[in-house]
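User: Here's a chain of 700 residues. Predict its fold as tokens.
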Amino acid sequence: MSRRWALVPPVPARRPSGGKNGTVIEPDPVADPYLWLEEVTGDRPLEWVRARNAESLGELTTGERFAELRDGIREVLDSDERIPYVRRRGELLYNFWQDAEHPRGLWRRTTLESYRTGEPDWELLLDVDALGAAEGENWVWQGAAVRKPEYVRALVQLSRGGADAIVVREFDLPTRSFVPAGDGGFELPEAKSGVGWVDADTVFVGTDTGPGSMTTSGYPRVMRQWRRGTPVAEAPVVFEAPETDVSAFAVHDDTEGFERDLVGRSPDFHTSLEYLRRPDGSLELIDVPPDADAGVHREWLLVRPRSPWTLGETTYPEGSLLAFGFDDYLAGGRDATVLFTPTPSRSLSYHAWTRHHLILMVLEDVTTRTEVLTPERGWARSPLPGGSELGSTDIVGIDPEASDEYLLDVSGYTQASTLLRGDLATGELETLRRAPEFFDATGMSVQQYFAVSDDGTRIPYFVVGDQTDSPGPVLMTGYGGFEVSLTPHYSGIIGRGWLARGGRYVVANIRGGGEYGPAWHTSVLGEHRYLAYQDFAAVARDLVDRKITTPDRLAIHGGSNGGLLMGVMLTRYPELFGAIVIQVPLLDMRRYHLLLAGASWMAEYGDPDSPTDWEWISKYSPYQNLRPDASLPPVLVTTSTRDDRVHPGHARKMVARMREYGYRVEYYENIEGGHGGAADNAQRAFQWGLVLEFCWRQVG
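Assistant: Prediction complete.
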């Protein structure tokens, strides 16, 4: 999943035999004696969690270095000099901000003119800490959808403790107060909901309204058009997906002159079927390949196929970007304009519209190149002013209906972020903010190398830090799934807690990500998953061959799908590493599809209930491949009780089995935090302090 864990959210998946809190308890405890740890908030499991936490915290948090690491990271996270990133909504710029005084955060807004001063005059909209205190809730901010074009109402999303399940409440911006349901305000109780504006008094909504309303993956199955002041369960249904799909969706495009409703379904994680919903309620399929990424903007339909796509006598490669006139396409026209063609070293990361232009974010061997296309001039192409040629460039704020303004965040492993504002209509380019340097990068460099995997594929990776000739301590990470790319970016946490203390940091761009387009991802799906693990092991060996480190000085960490990667390294390649940190992981691949949102990931991993699929999954599933007689490096496992995306039972059961076999393993489970592992900066600093202290003890 990127700089955050990337498995997509949702609720309890299949529940064939009941179970508390969305868990599934199998009838045969002999096959798995630790099934009881899947009961998320049961007294016995939580007693076990508290005991494990006490053991590990008593070990890892004593001593000056842990306190220095934790406090130094907290300074980074709470620094007043951080860039307050903004999103434009009409004439104003909106920001969500967390610091030491406001750990759960402030939702606020200001003008561009005020933002330019460096000391903006913020209008406070919502204080989440004050709200939680007043209501006796541990609210965590999950975002807000502000209604266009008036910008006077918003749908605010809050979760308890950082879970994916949210409550939705309508918020009045002029009065800075919630609109009570009794006064016609839109309000939804805690559920894995999807909701978006249609007009001032109507929303599209998918939520848990009882049996049959959710898919087996936990996403909304039924989309409704909900009118203000009426019961949501009685709102007219606009679309339904089969129960075994991942989800259904419905969105309203309110672009002036191009108003339209789009509905659809996602049969699995990597496919979708989208329909234009006519005013009479009839549906017209937008007939593109189900695995393609397609988007409608004004008069254009853009399609990025994820597998080769033949139209007429032309076959377009996966990862290309094609433009069609939307109305012409619906009428049967298939004349494509090619906007991007991939090469072995170039892939399209993503694209974004301004009012009159299309911005392409291109990866060239994992570093960013930026281009601008202008459809009104025959898709004329030019460089994007402000784009970085050395690190990573990300679009962080655009209102595509308002103007040709864009905001760019430019950074690199040793280059702190710069926030730029450009305007393609005027050619204007200005620096709005520069983030502070949280560590001294003098003498540090960034090198890119390529390891050769077992099948001969070249795997890129970055090495950051002092480039000396002698092996030293290395902290390495990777992800390798869901087409998520790990691109160069600045981390004050890694910089201050690892690089500045003499360590080197390594990022492995293994297959399964999107660094080289869709094929880089699809090449390791299902039965070919083992290739991603061979890639990561190849990078580890290459680091030793280049004398950058030695196995006993190489620590690795990863979360979510990256936590699964760490679990495979532990059970299949333990001799390559000196320490392993496994965070919010999938580990029991025999049951992952039965727990929480796991059913939605079968397109990535396979179906364990299929004998054919289980044959390949069983070869790497960490929980099933743990053996009592192996020589394992030291291990730290972390998770969150409130993670309702990847079940904490994965981490709990793995640790319990390791303890049964006599292995020393440290464990920490945060009660809050959701899939991100932490709900505020204090929790983030504490967890990163644990991770870095553990790694320094083992390989430093």
